[in-house]
Amino acid sequence: MGNDTFTNSLTDSLQHLVGTLLPDDDPVIDSPIQAIWRDFCNFPGSFAPFGYEVNEAFYDFLISNVKNKAPGWDALRGSFIKKIDYLVKPFIVHIFNSCLRVAYFPNVWKIGNLTILLKSPHGNVSNIKNYYTNNFAA
Q1: Source organism's superkingdom (predicted)?
Q2: DSSP characters over 56-122
Q3: How far apart are CA 13 and CA 100, in angstroms?
């Protein structure tokens, strides 16, 4: 599907977005720890590490507590996700559980720009307590 085409359904759209925005989970570039977790999780009869799993109730709890958070690298704000969460909830829950299962989270989820702001223009610039920190999207 090229950049100049449209998708025909919500599922096609989400598959295109996931395939385009998230890097492939390539086992070749796994760190040694990721490789161990991947092998453990793929072993027949194994379970997700520590039994962690995100369910839709936990997702609802997280979404209900999103207030004025900085957007990620994709520039999607929490208020937008709240408006469409009834459409994307099962997909996001599946993606989170897949990440937990293989103990891999894409590096782009960890990118941000740390900005340090002076609290008061009249404050002491050499005092670290006179600064705010803010994490903006990269």
Answers
A1: Eukaryota
A2: HHHHHHHHHT--SPPP-TT---HHHHHHHHHHHHHHHHHHHHHHHHHT---GGGG--EEEEEES-TT
A3: 24
48 Rama sector, left if φ>0, alpha if ψ -120 to 50, beta otherwise: beta
Q: Give the count of alpha carbons within 13 A of 60, CB side only.
A: 4
The residue range of the domain holding 96 is 10-111
Q: Is residue 132 assigned to a domain?
A: no
* Beta carbons of 32 and 48 less than 8 angstroms apart: no
Percent of the chain with pLDDT over 90: 0
pTM, to two decimals: 0.50
Length of the chain: 138
Which 8-state DSSP code applies to residue 125?
T
Structure tokens at 129: 């307590």
Residue-wise pLDDT tens digits, 33-84: 777 766 666 655 444 555 667 888 888 887 887 766 667 677 777 788 888 8
